[in-house]
Amino acid sequence: MDVVQRGRAKRMRSADSGAPPAAATSAAHPISQVDLRSELQLREGSRVEIRPLQADDKAGLAAGFARLSELSRYRRFLSPTTRLTNSQLAYLTELDHHDHEALVAIEPASRHGLGVARYVRSSDDPREAEFAVAVADDWQRRGLGTALLGALAARAREEGITRFTGLVQAENRSMQALLQTLGPVEQRPGGGGTIEVSLEVPEESGTGEHLRRLAGWMRAAATGQLNSRLGRRGGS
Predict the structure, then answer these.
(1) Residue 230 falls inside a structural domain
(2) What is the dihedral of CA 4, 6, 11, 13, to 10 degrees?
């Protein structure tokens, strides 16, 4: 389900070659080091399991993507997309859990995937990463996206990442103003008529307020106003 994408040339992986991250800051982590599972209750009472995404999750990821509405798919890929290719599935699931991490939310009873949050570290600044969140249409507005963001923020901090980034269309002044209300936001040209904005990843002691800000970012992404193109690097 996680298909919020970005294709900036200097991000961590080549779209065409499928090469490993060009500026990985350490060797890939064994999955045993990040096989951290947690079960939590959402604000409306449902219980979900959150764990790191693994290479054998390709079928589940493809099935979750197929359940997304056409609009949700478009908002994630910024273009009409009907399915994930093998290259994209490989890129989205074969992770080092350090420079590229993804967490999946699962319904305990059915074992269906409900949402994914991921970050990809920048090769320009190892303390910065682009983040993406996708939640199944029938699980939106239930607190799942915020829960995934909280878990992703914790993982990012563990790996030395201190800022998350996203894209805003340059002409979208109202969105830029809204982001400023969510806390200190840095802005810089993002290319293609966009502005790249960045927000500090919350410290554990400040999770509540920072999660409110990140949740605002997530709502902006869900309405197509805050974009990312991470997985388009998977190629065709």
Answers:
(1) yes
(2) 70
